[in-house]
Amino acid sequence: MANALGPGTLTLGETGTLRQFAAHTTATSLVPSYSDGDVLDLLDGSTEREQDEETWALEGTIRQQLETDALEDWCLTNAGKEVTFTFKPVNSVTKTYTGTCRIRAVNIGGDVKTKNTSDFSFPIIGRPEIE
Questions:
Q1: CA distances for 56 relative to 1, 35, 62, 126, 130, angstroms
Q2: Is 44 contained in some domain?
Q3: pLDDT tens-digit map of 14-32
Q4: Rg (Cα) of the chain, in Å, rounded?
């Protein structure tokens, strides 16, 4: 049986500096990307293919808060830092994904008289793990 995403949790950082994202997140995904390995031509006329590369990102959309301690400000302050994350897509299911990602700044502001959002894409170091 398929489950709808949520209610769930998304936290970033370590105990003591843990940042809750779920209450302001309208979309969250673990996204894989693949690039085929290059084919190398060798002197003897044969070819060798390099290994494919797999990368992952923690992606989603947050509602901008534009107030003290807003998530968009947290992303700007922590841009470039590697932090741990925990993503539980559905609280009623025991599956949880964990890993380490690199924080990137997100857009701040947007259209006037609109509840603006910011898309985020944090590269994951290695692969996410399933707990």
A1: 26, 12, 19, 7, 14
A2: no
A3: 887 889 999 999 999 999 9
A4: 18
Q: What residues are paired with 19 via a beta bridge? A: 12
What does pTM read for this prediction?
A: 0.85
Domain holding 21, by residue range, is 9-35+49-130
Tell me the C-alpha to C-alpha distance, in Å, between residue 117 and each of 63, 68, 108.
4, 16, 8
CB 89 within 8 A of CB 30: no
Rounded Cα distance between 11 and 124, Å, is 14
Q: What is the pLDDT of residue 92?
A: 76
Domain-embedded: residue 40 = no
Mean pLDDT in the chain?
91
How many domains does the structure of the chain reveal? 1
Task: Give tens-digit pLDDT for 53-62.
Answer: 899 999 999 9
Report the C-alpha gap between 72 and 109 in whole angstroms. 10
Residue 14 lies in a domain: yes
Q: Is residue 76 part of a domain?
A: yes
- Asked if 122 and 77 count as a contact pair (C-beta separation under 8 A), the reply is no
pLDDT at 69: 84
